[in-house]
Write a structure and sequence with these properties.
There is one protein chain. With 250 residues, this protein is of the alpha+beta class. The chain has a domain at 155-249: Sandwich (Immunoglobulin-like). It has helices at 2-55, 92-130, 137-147; strands spanning 58-62, 74-78, 161-168, 171-177, 185-194, 201-207, 212-232, 237-239, 243-249. The strands form 2 sheets. Strands 3, 4, 5, 6, 7, 8 and 9 form a 7-stranded antiparallel sheet that branches. It has a two-stranded antiparallel ribbon with strand order 1-2. Strand 5 and strand 6 (201-207) form a beta hairpin. The protein is rod-shaped.
């Protein structure tokens, strides 16, 4: 009986010892698991802290002191990345098109200005062409110089022919005809000489297209000689046949 009790006590002690060891093992396992969970939580906390510190870093920059004030403020600049804003500048193609349009406008304006200037010049020239030209003293002098005899000699010089005087109510008309050598004739001189003595008195110088000249009888005293001469451009003067009229003439 005593042996059985001892054996029972031993088995009981072994069971209690086994139970205690099993409980200790389970406690150790639970402690290990909690420790592992804590370390994992710590790691995740550190990672999230690092991420937040990287994503948002704030620097404190002292503000520039304003004149007359010793106070200074600290402005905080956040380096948190912001979404890229749309550019407000036009694209290169838009700039090129606007530049091209402006250059075309400038060219068109220049062309229009040139056309307006040309029209003004043409209208001015046309108005000046239609205007009446008044001869100036210089022009009159040049015209008289051109009418003066030239120095170029002519091939022939002849006197007028068919010289005759015809009476009329106021006196008489001296008539004549052009000579054969008509080249270079500038006109005719009609002259009178009283009683056939003294110098010849020039009554008129008529153009080359005129072939008569009126003379006036003053009274019946004395008589007069009548002479018509051809005037050439080289200065040569050729007198025609002389005839006489009774009375005083001018």
């Amino acid at each position: 009986m005593a042996a059985k009790k001892k054996a029972a006590k031993r088995s009981t002690a072994k069971r209690s010892t086994a139970k205690k060891s099993t409980a200790k093992r389970s406690v150790k396992k639970a402690a290990k698991r909690s420790t592992a969970k804590k370390s994992t939580a710590k790691r995740s906390t550190k990672k999230s802290a690092k991420r937040s510190s990287k994503s948002s870093v704030r620097y404190s920059i002292p503000a520039v002191p304003v004149s007359g004030s010793s106070r200074s403020s600290v402005s905080t600049i956040s380096t948190t990345p912001k979404p890229a804003a749309k550019s407000s500048y036009p694209s290169r193609s838009t700039n090129k098109s606007s530049d091209t349009g402006s250059s075309k406008g400038i060219i068109i304006a220049v062309v229009v200005g040139i056309l307006i200037l040309a029209v003004a010049v043409i209208s001015k020239n046309s108005s000046s062409d239609t205007a009446t030209v008044t001869p100036t003293p210089a022009a009159s002098e040049s015209a008289s110089a051109s009418a003066a005899p030239s120095s170029a000699p002519l091939a022939a010089h002849e006197a007028p022919v068919g010289i005759v005087s015809l009476y009329n109510a106021t006196g008489a008309t001296v008539n004549w005809k052009a000579p054969t050598a008509t080249e270079g004739i500038t006109g005719y001189n009609v002259e009178l000489r009283t009683n056939g003595v003294g110098d010849w008195k020039l009554v008129a110088t008529v153009p080359a297209t005129q072939f008569k000249q009126q003379i006036t009888k003053n009274d019946t005293t004395g008589w007069v000689q009548v002479q018509v001469s051809t005037v050439y451009s080289d200065g040569e003067v050729v007198a025609g046949k002389v005839h006489g009229l009774p009375g005083s003439w001018s």
